[in-house]
Design a protein that fits this description.
This protein is α+β, with helices and mostly antiparallel strands and about 190 residues long. Helices cover about 40% and strands about 20% of the residues. It has 6 helices and 5 strands. A 3-stranded antiparallel sheet has the order 1-2-3, with no helix packed on it. Helix 2 runs antiparallel to helix 3. It is flat, with a radius of gyration of 27 Å.
Length: about 190
């Protein structure tokens, strides 16, 4: 007789004693981790620096699986504390990344009735060394100095030893390789002058 119909009613006080209402703000460990991960990732994006959120999530899921597998043999409080104390700043460390390429982003804009192609920013493409996943970072470019983020990332790249792009090939030259080439050319010219 019910024909798939259900009657929804609020739970009584006796029924509420044994369950947790998940619609009222209950968050599991994974939800809390993801909220912290989004906050940390946004912090790095505002500074125009790469952040490996994929590896952070995969490491957390691995740790969580390890905790589930060891739950019967480990004191639950210790393992749970280890899951909560994951350092998210290590996933933004410059040593975790390799700069692969820099691509120019161009858009067509209508200026004084004439369609022009204007450079609006750059994509800095990084590769995470640990897992090999790609990370693209858009850096906007503007004529207004306060809005131009290119100097921020250029300073970060220089401070962390990343190479500069070669304008002819588009490939990234590592600073140490460039110094070796200069030293080699200097030695070759010394040999020719003697």
């Amino acid at each position: 007789m019910a024909d798939g119909l259900s009657i929804f009613r609020p739970a009584t006080e006796v029924e509420k004693a044994d369950y947790v209402d998940i619609s009222k703000g209950y968050h599991g460990l994974m939800d809390k981790f993801l909220a912290a991960l989004v906050k940390k990732s946004t912090e790095y994006q505002k500074r125009f620096q790469p952040y490996d959120s994929y590896s952070a999530r995969m490491d957390f899921e691995d740790d969580m699986q390890r905790y589930i597998n060891q739950a019967s043999s480990v004191i639950p409080g210790q393992a749970l504390k280890a899951l909560k104390d994951i350092d998210l700043d290590k996933y933004g460390n410059a040593a975790r990344f390799e700069l692969v390429s820099i691509e120019t982003v161009k858009e067509d804009k209508l200026l004084d009735g004439i369609r022009n192609t204007v450079t609006t920013g750059y994509y800095y493409n990084f590769k995470a060394i640990e897992r090999g996943n790609g990370i693209s970072l858009f850096v906007p470019m503007s004529d207004v100095p306060e809005l131009n983020a290119v100097p921020l990332i250029e300073k970060w790249l220089k401070d962390n030893g990343f190479g500069k792009p070669n304008p002819l090939t588009g490939e990234i030259e590592k600073p140490e390789e460039k110094e070796e080439v200069v030293e080699k050319k200097v030695e070759e010219t010394k040999g020719k002058t003697k």
